[in-house]
Design goal:
Layout (H helix, E strand, L loop, with lengths): L1 E4 L5 H16 L5 H11 L2 H8 L4 E8 L2 E9 L12 E9 L8 H15 L4 E7 L3 H9 L3 E10 L2 E11 L1
Parallel strand pairs: 4-5
Antiparallel strand pairs: 1-2, 2-3, 3-4, 5-7, 6-7
Helix pairs in contact: 1-3
The chain binds coenzyme A (COA).
Length: 169
């Protein structure tokens, strides 16, 4: 297993991994029109290229031999989607493809995130997770995160209620 930092050259690959995982995980829980609008807006190659070029954001890709299994997106101030507190890292996305779940890759990506946060002298990591994604909440709690608040996430114009979870380094 390898984990490497992505560049703008990886935009098409990251967009595809993100779109597939988001679709597999959330399609059955959402209005198809909202879902399609969100996927189109979020996981397109131009947006990915821009995000991958942001110096305050790091995306890391996990692969097993030639197969890409998932990725992680970490944001530092001022590139976070909310709060932007000095000394914090946002874990904005962690996606493991359906066929690679439950093999320890999610844990490996979280460990990578914790190391990255330490290297950048952060004192905490925060993330926002949909209340209707209890599997991810259980996973994060297993990784040492705790519920520290709530937040509204806008999904293509629709409000979703999220838990904010924090990990103290
Ligand atoms: C959440 C996610 C990243 C976990 O990745 P994963 O590779 O399947 O997780 P791991 O195999 O590393 O599991 C690590 C630990 O979390 C636990 N865990 C993983 N998935 C879980 C689930 N669905 N329910 C409860 N616990 C879970 C495992 O039991 C494991 O503990 P163990 O090592 O003691 O057995 C992955 O399921 C995923 O990408 N889901 C879809 C996208 C998503 O919801 N992302 C988060 C959005 S905020």
């Amino acid at each position: 297993m390898t984990i490497r930092i992505c560049t703008a050259e990886d935009a098409a690959l990251i967009a595809e991994l993100g779109r597939r995982t988001y679709d597999d995980t959330f399609r059955q829980l959402n209005d198809p029109k909202i879902m399609d609008a969100y996927l189109k807006k979020t996981f397109n190659i131009a947006v990915m290229r821009e995000e991958l070029s942001d110096p305050d954001s790091v995306t890391a890709l996990l692969s097993e031999h030639d197969l890409h299994a998932g990725y992680l997106k970490m944001n530092f101030p001022p590139a976070q989607s909310d709060f932007n507190r000095e000394g914090s890292m946002e874990l904005q996305r962690i996606y493991v493809l359906r066929e690679f779940k439950r093999r320890g890759y999610g844990r490996a990506l979280i460990e990578y995130a914790k190391e990255m946060a330490e290297k950048r002298n952060c004192t905490s990591i925060w993330l926002s997770v949909w209340e209707e994604n209890p599997e991810a909440v259980s996973f994060y709690e297993k990784m040492g995160f705790y519920k520290s608040g709530r937040r509204i996430f806008m999904m293509a114009g629709e409000e979703q209620s999220d838990f904010v979870l924090t990990y103290d380094l």
